[in-house]
Fold this sequence. Notes:
heterodimer; A: about 350 residues; alpha+beta; Rossmann fold; CATH 2.40.50.100; 2 domains; six-stranded mixed beta sheet; five-stranded antiparallel beta sheet; 10 helices; about 30% helix; about 35% strand; B: about 220 residues; mainly alpha; MetI-like fold; elongated
Amino acid sequence: xGSSIEVKRITKQYGDITALDDVSLKVDRGExxxxxxxxxxxxxxxxxxxxxxxxxxSGDVYFNGVRVDKDSSSEVRAxxxxxxxxxxxxxxTVQKNIAYGLKLRGCSKKxxxxxxxxxxxxxxxxxYEKRWAKKLSxxxxxxxxxxxxxxxDTELLLLDEPTANLDPKNVSIIEETISWVxxxxxxxxxxxxxxxxxxxxxxxxxxxxxxGRIMQVGTTREIFGAPSKDLASFARLENVFSGNSTALxxxxxxxxIGNDLYIEAPIKQTGKxxxxxxxxxxxxxxxxxxxxxxxxxxxxxxxxxxxxxxVRLRVDAGKEFVVQITKRSFIEMGLNLGSEVYLVFKAxxxxxx
Amino acid sequence: MxxxxxxxxxxxxxxxxxxxxxxxxxxxxxxxxxLKKFRGRFAMKGLFNALLGLPTVTLGLLLYLLLSKAGxxxxxxxxxxxxxxxxxxxxxxxxxxxxxxxxxxxxxESEVKDLAKTLGASETQASLAVLGEAKRGFLLAVTASFSRxxxxxxxxxxxxxxxxxxxxxxxxxxxxxxxxxxFVPAIALGVILLMIVSAVSLTVNFLQRRDSWGRV
Lengths: 353, 216
């Protein structure tokens, strides 16, 4: 598999500020690649350079293995497109917004009409052709932006925080569309996000960008399976606890996180440590479980928040844990505020950072 | 005696001509200042901004001296003609025209350009997209300029002299009949002027509300 877009030793400075510091990245053709990092880490600058609308202070960009220069940049722009975080729409109808790039590519009226219709169906905005783009809701506007990008059927699709500040329904439509375009058309996708959960479920490989530098590149399993301190430092990790660890003879350790709670972790370490357990790694049970899992705590449901097909619960077990379960489980277990539950998770689900 | 209608229509014609003239040269200058990054751009923008507050009597005096019989342009015999007023007003409102056009382009330029380019536009095509998006700004420039022109007194008085059936416009009529103590027609024309100006600024407001770019 060849590379789609590659940046070599890119540095970008705005006056005294270094937005990107000697960054090299290679995105393979046909993959969904995520750049994760907090706000201000340089994600947007990276995408803008890949899109050819920003020039790096130093370093080179390669598209399909060929170095991009002034002469070839417009050609590259024809084969790639970008969706901005702050939705940018032309002040006209949805139809004309989507038609813009197609007109530039010399498509016929009939082709344009068909393509607009198709892409609107993809983002589930059938029949929105005549609507005024800027009068739509934020989520619908973002979907129009995405449709406008999809209509061009480019080799490379760059997405800057495509679902930031959107409600769950719009988020899931956009995520489905991204994964559809990658699967069905083989479009290479580079996406910037600070949403770890999204990065993990949607993408093949990811790079962690912090302060303009790449801290880690790898498959999502590599990055999220064993989160580094860098990742934990910015990601809004839940179920983060600190305490004194005591190594056991079996090769694991028990960490006293206070309030009579002891968590068993797969490390052999004594002294103060910080650990976290991911909300989706915790099993919720109505009764005590006899299982191989090393950690079990009794608690009460203290908060419920619904996000589409998933439900997040806050459970007070002496310390507060966040647990994520499917809506079906939630309904079948008949959970309510105050319900007594057992939290169960394996020692290997405990990540020490 | 000429009717109120004649005076009103003459006012609209004179200031309308002034607006057209200033649009003729003000729009290209505004586009240039908005789109192109060249040396001296900031100085030029500063100049036009400073001229926004140009006193009408100062400009009137200057043009009077130029157009009077003894002046360098006296041979044109323009003094005390409607055209003289139009020219004077067009110079007065040129800074408004330029600033409005420049600002409306600058406020959206980088965003629209980036967007157009990511959709495959060349530099020129991207600039055209910016102009397309800024078209409401041009309309704003025209309406604001017209309001200023039709409501000004100094130039109309000094270059037109309120000649009956020739250069009498709303503002000069109001000013001079009030002087003679004949209030009723002055008030009537005052109301008409107010209506014209309000109608124009209401349109401006309406357009401004629809002109927001980016996320609403």
